[in-house]
Amino acid sequence: MQFDTKFVIVVAEDLANWQKLNVVSFLSGGVTASPIVNTGDRYRDASGCEYLSLCVQPIVVLKATREKLATFIQRANREQSEVAVFIQDMFESGHDEANRETVSQYSTDALPLVGIAMCGEKKRVDKVFKGAKLHD
């Protein structure tokens, strides 16, 4: 199936595995809540049990240095693209309100980014995240 949009999450390559998984899960939830992302119907197994719907398109997970993440946020803002961010401090903050508070303490160019996610038109997403590598 072909999609007009692309859903990408980029994580800092120097994070511990548990941190990468945490960043990817939070960012995917943030982007999936945006109106551009489609979720399908609920799943049902042969026994009749129902399960929540999932995002209908693949999510590409990439890696980059923290310096590159700073470049990506600048590009996204220049393109006026909506993105989800995860900063280092959020590993310690503990809940959503505290996460928003910690982000609000930084100017854009000082955000200690460890992850960025975006879903949008393919060319725009590729332009924003040019230089990121496929996560292994």
Automatic annotation (TrEMBL):
Q: Please give one Pfam family short name.
A: DUF2000
Give the protein name, as stated in the record: DUF2000 domain-containing protein
